[in-house]
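Side project, low priority. Logging it here so it doesn't get lost.
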Amino acid sequence: ECKRLISKTDLMQGVCGRITFLSSRVGSVLSGSLMDEVKLSKCMGSTYRAYQTSNNTQSEERDLSYESAIRSLNALQSNAATLQKIRKERQKHVHLNLPQTRLYLERSGVTTDMLNSLKIIHVSGTKGKGSTCAFCESILRQYGLRTGFYSSPHLVSATERVRLDGEPVARTKFTQYFWQVYDKVCRNRSSEDRPPYFQFLTVLAFNIFIKEKVDVAIIEVGIGGEYDCTNIIEKPIVTGITALGLDHTNILGNTIAEIAWHKAGIMKSGVPTFIDGNQPSDALKVISRRSTELGASSLAVAPPLDQYAWGRFPLVLGLHGQIQHRNAALALCLAKSFLAHTDLLEGDTHNLPEGEEEDSSPQISRQASQDNYQNIDVVEPFAITGKMALGLRLTDWPGRTQILDMGRTQYFLDGAHTEESVRACAAWFKKASKQSARDEEKIFKVMIFNTSGERDPKVLLTPFLKCQLDLVIFTTNVSGLEDAVDQQ
């Protein structure tokens, strides 16, 4: 029960003469005439109703639908003016990001000990971190593990950001957990005392993974690493760093060395780290130095994918493009390291050399370290098991080098947004479109392009000049699907 005086200024005349309370300070919807005492009770498991205790006994349900959840989530996004101010002041307050995230996590009911109970794989990088996480998740699912996967951004629905067993969390489950967390963290609080969009979703994801009792949580960093919301993780099983490039320079810095400093911030004391070795030398130097400063138990480069011992298994990936070979190679190291540090394995000894144990950690060869890796150790290629090969083959990551065949029309989808990644995208498109073409037909190539304001479109478009495009369509950041709450 709660008792609250409601002033006349808090009241608005509603439909059919009823009065609806819409105060953001209270954050609940109450109906009826003026009252000074209210009872809140839970009804039918998930629907809250507010009842007045005056003579008028009419009631109105609080909207706890999925659509209402998405609208409340979207309300946590900053408007353009506020966002510009945040960007200008971000460096001044960036150190507050992690303590604020911990505060909101604890407010949601998750303690540090509960967070540390999760078995986590934490991945940062500029390019390919989502694909690397997707490969890793698919491999571990083949071992019978219940997987959780947190990623960003989403393509169509916010539920894509939190995945259970490879699938976006069901709308009903998302809605249930959303309101549980929202009511504890945001409801009845001012806008200054609410987490922004990504921070809230990070807290929500950890709540879901803990309550759903996942065996492994694969966490993709949002931006950077050192001060990213996800870096409240204290005890991951293993961490990974994918290819680096110049992106989010207004936040992370204008040089590859500055960006590498942020990305390497997810390394933890006593925890192994595996990286994509195809990095600028300045990035490798910073990563190596930070691994020592942060006390990582080991730092090693993933070997090329074709150097692994594939045996009788074909090297086939569920994601297209040469760049995905590097992501898959790193994912194999992360998955094998995770399996070696847990007791969740099922037997899978096919294709293993005699005497090799499946649960052994990736072996590091200091002799194999080369000058172009800045003396960082290299993982010795190991034998691929059947479950590893199957996991790589079945990996599905929509919107990343994805081909949709719609009969006479084929769509080649990718979210490349850095100079390096668009070059890889253009190379993939030229090869993939040529392979799909029918010799006797003229292929009409159309490019649909969109980018956010902070990126240079000339840099992103130049690699496609040699793709023989017939038409380019430039779109805005405004969706035309106004009736879909996910697109608002």
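Brief comment: Residues 1-59 have pLDDT under 50 and may be disordered.
Revisit when time allows.
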